[in-house]
Design brief:
This protein is of the alpha/beta class. It contains 7 helices and 12 strands. It has a single domain, classed as Spore Coat Polysaccharide Biosynthesis Protein SpsA, Chain A. Strand 6 and strand 7 form a beta hairpin.
């Protein structure tokens, strides 16, 4: 693998809630990666569909090909709680958080890891790399390209522009974990604000390296908006920061 000094363990965290219809394709995309040093931790957040059965079937199907474990939460506590649970057990030097309705392009990990490790030889403060995506329908049909933006430490305070399957130095994640479980929308922005606020910087790869599925149940609401725009004839790439909400917390009392 060009640009990678030696294989190091990468932990992939997949939080899941009622995405049984999609998660099989998510897991399959990890099997296709040209990188073997993976541990995959799936946390099912008390799904009421057939997610757990599907995940267990996938684990059996890929036994010997992919190191996958499943954590079952008994109560639905939200995506951030699921991520926090996984962070307690992951052992990798790097981390990748992958939503269970999305999937990676085949070269995602090798491409990102090569860029990250090369950058870190010049600047140890580089803590993650992120990328563009293909926006796809619930059925997997290509819709448009979704673009992020070049790294800007100030911009992250007001705009959510860094996608979830960025490849991150585990130390950067561990330093700011556990994450705030009262955040139910804008979870990405809250996480990146914490990491960047701790002195880490990122590198933008202007390539579509994962598929982001648009449907009515996206936590951010982007799926509903994009689907309506497509139905109304709006074409062209989407700037992701225009669709992702900034962090908002669950009201108590």
């Amino acid at each position: 693998m060009s640009g990678v000094a030696a294989p190091v363990l990468l932990s992939v965290i997949i939080p899941n809630h009622n995405y049984g219809q999609f998660i099989g394709e998510t897991i399959a995309s990890l099997v296709r990666q040209d990188y073997a040093a993976l541990e995959v931790v799936i946390v099912d957040d008390a799904s009421s569909d057939d997610s757990v059965k599907i995940i267990k079937d996938e684990i059996k199907a890929y036994k010997g090909k992919l190191d996958i474990s499943l954590i079952e939460m008994k109560e639905n506590k939200g995506k951030v709680a699921a991520v926090n649970r996984a962070m307690e057990v992951v052992k990798g030097e790097y981390c990748l958080l992958l939503d269970s309705d999305d999937y990676l392009m085949d070269n995602h990990i090798v491409r990102c890891l090569a860029v990250l490790e090369r950058a870190r030889t010049e600047d140890e403060h580089v803590g993650f790399v992120y990328m563009d995506c293909h926006l796809i329908s619930a059925d997997g049909e290509f819709l448009e390209r979704g673009r992020s933006a070049p790294f800007d430490a100030e911009l992250i305070r007001t705009l959510s522009y860094i996608p979830e399957p960025a490849l991150v130095v585990m130390e950067a994640m561990k330093q700011v974990a556990p994450f705030d479980e009262s955040v139910r929308k804008g979870t990405k922005q809250d996480k990146w604000c914490r990491i960047i606020g701790n002195g880490w910087t990122g590198i933008y790869i202007p390539e579509a390296l994962f598929c982001y599925r648009m449907h009515d149940n996206n936590l951010s609401g982007i799926g509903t908006r994009v689907q309506k725009e497509v139905e109304n004839g709006k074409t062209g790439e989407r700037i992701l920061s225009g669709y992702w909400p900034v962090a908002s917390r669950k009201k108590t009392g």
